[in-house]
Automatic annotation (TrEMBL):
PANTHER family: RIBOSOMAL RNA LARGE SUBUNIT METHYLTRANSFERASE K/L (PTHR47313), RIBOSOMAL RNA LARGE SUBUNIT METHYLTRANSFERASE K_L (PTHR47313:SF1). GO terms for molecular function: methyltransferase activity. The keyword Coiled coil does not apply. This is Class I SAM-dependent RNA methyltransferase. Keywords: Methyltransferase, Transferase. InterPro entries: RlmKL-like_Mtase, RlmL_1st, SAM-dependent_MTases_sf, THUMP_dom. The keyword Transferase applies. Signal peptide: none annotated. Residues 62-160 form the THUMP domain.
Length: 394
């Protein structure tokens, strides 16, 4: 099975509502997209081409390369079809593999049973062909096989990513309730920040938005922070392709850049977490770290830029009334201190959003986990109406 050279259906998954930004990323890398859906996109490419995508995409979760599509009504059908795949040409029988799945079939009560059937079929095939039983488990750091099974339609994929791409690898200290890196990238794309004007992130928490902004502006791809992917554990993998792509990532980094990014938080611990994560990412010198109440965040008087808040949403009981005042203060701060900027507040609480006291010019839909959220945009005029920021493509 020449998976590294033969084209097949490839599904790139992402969190719900990130697919428009994922689509832009994939297109900018020169790939033709066959279809777009709520949680991903579909292409027709080789497994080798998946290597470049794994190293470059910020908004993706997994990149799945299809090795077989088939009909299966019962678990026995599934086992028979999986057993017929030439696993001895894909998986090193002395190696390790895991199985993940997305299953909706009336003949089984739990996806774990489907996973077990897939594992059994692979193990039995390799034992028959090679005489040795491979190791398997739940870890996603080696070969990962993904099953999609809905009613009678089934697809088996190689998960070329392994561990999720949505985490970008630099955040060694998570902090309190951090925003997922892939979501932060999508939020920044949605602001249409020009990557040159100031980027202000009050109430920065663990700093994901500020760090991702610095990474995007300097063209530092997620692949710079990771050395293990699922595709590396498939028979036929050529490490020279990976290292060649990684050299391209290093060469495309913008090293000398005049950039103003401010990350502030009232918590000294939060700012220290942000600083340490930014240092791991190699962008700590590009960010102005400030320990202060958000109303004291220094805003460069450049006449334009973006200010992005990601405040608490008030999910816990007893904090709602306090947050009402905080949301009002955010609106006052943007109105008084950020004239000429475009303001953004990311929230999952529409009632609190009403307390901001400004009329949103745009509401962009996102999900943070399972929570329905909005990125609210505010045009903060300074006298005359200013044209909106436009995105600059690499």
């Amino acid at each position: 099975m020449q998976v590294f050279h033969n084209k097949s259906k490839v599904i790139i998954t992402c969190n719900k509502r990130l697919s428009p930004y994922l689509q832009e990323e994939v297109t900018s890398l020169g790939y033709n997209i066959e279809s777009v859906f709520a949680t991903g996109i579909m292409l027709n490419i080789t497994l080798t081409e998946c290597i470049k995508l794994n190293l470059n995409l910020r908004c993706a979760s997994q990149i799945l390369y299809s090795i077989k599509s088939f009909k299966a009504v019962t678990p026995d059908d599934l086992y028979r079809e999986i057993s017929a795949i030439e696993w001895e040409e894909l998986i090193d029988f002395t190696g390790y593999f895991s199985v993940k799945s997305n299953v909706d079939n009336p003949n089984i009560t739990t996806p774990l049973f489907a996973n077990l059937k897939v594992k059994d079929a692979i193990v039995d095939r390799l034992k028959e062909k090679k005489g040795i039983r491979p190791n398997s488990g739940s870890d996603a750091n080696k070969t990962v096989i993904h099953l999609y099974w809905k009613n009678a339609e089934a697809d088996v994929f190689i998960d070329t990513s392994g561990e999720t791409l949505a985490k970008h690898g630099y955040r060694k200290i998570p902090g309190k309730a951090p925003m997922l890196e892939a979501l932060a990238s999508g939020v920044i794309y949605a602001t249409q920040w020009d990557k040159k004007s100031p980027f202000i992130n009050p109430m920065c928490g663990s700093g994901t938005l500020a760090i991702e902004a610095a990474l995007i502006a300097t063209n530092r791809a997620p692949g710079l922070y990771r050395m293990n992917y699922g595709f590396m554990h498939i028979i036929g993998y050529n490490e020279e392709v990976f290292f060649a792509e990684r050299r391209i990532l290093k060469d495309q980094v913008i090293k000398n850049i005049d950039l103003k990014i401010v990350a502030s938080d009232i918590s000294e611990d939060a700012v220290e977490v942000t600083r340490r994560n930014a240092k791991t990412a190699g962008v700590d010198t590009l960010i102005d770290f400030q320990v202060c109440d958000f109303e004291l965040t220094p805003v460069p008087d450049d006449g334009r830029g973006v200010v992005v808040f990601n405040p608490e949403y008030g999910e816990r009981l007893g904090v709602h009334s306090k947050l009402e005042l905080t949301y009002k203060r955010m609106g006052d701060f943007m109105k008084k201190e950020c004239k000429g900027y475009t303001g953004y507040i990311f929230t999952g609480n529409p009632d609190l959003a009403k307390k901001i006291g400004l009329k949103a010019s745009k509401k962009v839909e996102f999900y943070n986990g399972k929570l329905d959220c909005r990125l609210l945009e505010y045009e903060l005029y300074d006298g005359s109406r200013r044209p909106p920021l436009t995105a600059v493509t690499e």
